[in-house]
Specification:
103 residues; mainly alpha; 2 domains; 5 helices; 0% strand; globular
């Protein structure tokens, strides 16, 4: 599975120059949004990465999960914090939205 993730990121990085070439303004604005969203503010970087991890789990985005686990660890997240963030995302998949929305 680790090779799958590495291969995904390698292919993504190969596509990035094409995106930058074809739609440079959009790419630059999107990366500006990413930078602003993840910059420390009322929440620190670790908290934001843990939130992003929970969302990645809820969205079933395997590459996103790996990325945000890595970024959360780099920001100082402990194993237990990562597991709780993943559990929160799992809860949203299994029960949270269906209960709240009556589905």
């Amino acid at each position: 599975m680790e090779n799958d993730v590495l291969n995904f990121f390698k292919s993504f990085m190969k596509a990035t120059p094409k995106i930058n070439r074809d739609i440079p303004d959009t790419a630059r604005q999107f990366m500006g949004l990413v930078d602003k969203a993840l910059a420390p503010g009322a929440l620190d970087t670790k908290q934001k990465e843990l939130i992003a991890l929970g969302i990645a789990v809820a969205q079933h985005c395997t590459p996103c999960i790996y990325l945000h686990v890595q970024k959360a660890v780099e920001a100082g997240a402990a194993r237990k914090e990562i597991m709780e963030a993943k559990l929160t995302g799992t809860y949203l998949i299994l029960r949270g939205s269906s209960w709240a929305c009556g589905r």
